[in-house]
Design brief:
The chain is mainly alpha-helical. 77% of the residues lie in helices and 0% in strands.
Length: 396
Amino acid sequence: MDKDRIVLLDALRGLGVLGILLCNAPDFAVAPEIAESASHWPHGTGAATLSVWVVTQWLFQRKFVTLFAMLFGVSIFLVGGERSDKDRGATLRRRLFWMVAFGLLHGFAIWYGDVLLSYALAGFAILLVRSWSARKLIRTGLTIWIVFSLLALVGLSFAAFLPQAAAQETLETATMLAKAKAAEAQYGGSFVQSLVQNAKDRLALLPGEPIIFAMTSALMMMGLGAFKAGVLTGEASDKVYRRLLVWGLLASAVVGGLFIAEAVTGLPKSLGLISVGVQWMLAPPTTLAYVALMVFAARSKAWSAIPKVLAPVGQMAFTNYLAQSVIMTAIFYGGRGLGLHGQVDRPGLAAITVGIWIAQILWSRWWLDRFEMGPLEWVWRRLYRGPSPLRRPVAA
């Protein structure tokens, strides 16, 4: 049973790290000011481009970063144990400290969209509540999530229907596009230019960390609570997973309907703001629908290969996440490789993403057949725990 549970957690983690890439791909390929926009996308709004955008927003965006955050909350408990265990608590704090260092290096030197720093900071809060009961963790996390999501939705709705002079809106759009064009020139320039621009964009995101901290902490609480309740270990009943699937599919239908309506009606700004707010609010139930599907796949003879294929990717999630950033910046940033920044449309980004998925599935299996853990997992563990064996012992 323990082995099966670990495989399930690793499979979910693998699903999360692969799913995140499709959402992050536009942020590598174009300036951050227009990466999430459909109406200001530099390659237009053709049918293929909009189709990829709708599918990404409907089935991927917010779901897999939410799943990743929930699972990181589980890792806080698996590494640190109960609060009464002082030795494991000290190990956990060292682990989070080094994750802060990795997050700063990744965010400023590789890619501005780093989540490691946010996860590490939230982790320091979760280590204080890791001994709470499943019910208390879920209730507290859900309350925080609902409060912040409602505030965000109200704010976005207010902005959506706030009267604005056409001249003012035109000026704001022109300013944004000019800023994006300047950033694109830097990202497509030399190595130093892309490095400096990346650092500037990383700094621009830091003021939002307090809100990210609160919402990430809420997701980690819900994830750890779901783990203690047996939901993330496959121990819950079929009835529980059916309910999660039904509620998740209903939430997904709402999100998908909004983004499809947005695409069909010409991408109105007001509907776009509301769609994003609803997408944020409904991220947990849509994410848990994926958890239910993975559990059903693990319990099925016909589909059990899916979690088995994804588990090695999840076992090396830290390595694979950072490898995605290195590969994508080598493709798009100037002075690092191909320098294709601003030149690839959404269908091309989807094709690149699928190629990286296949490569990471294959390489993760190959690596773990020979080694105990991923290369960066091994470096990280040495830093916070001391020497650890890497190569698997040769069979007699």
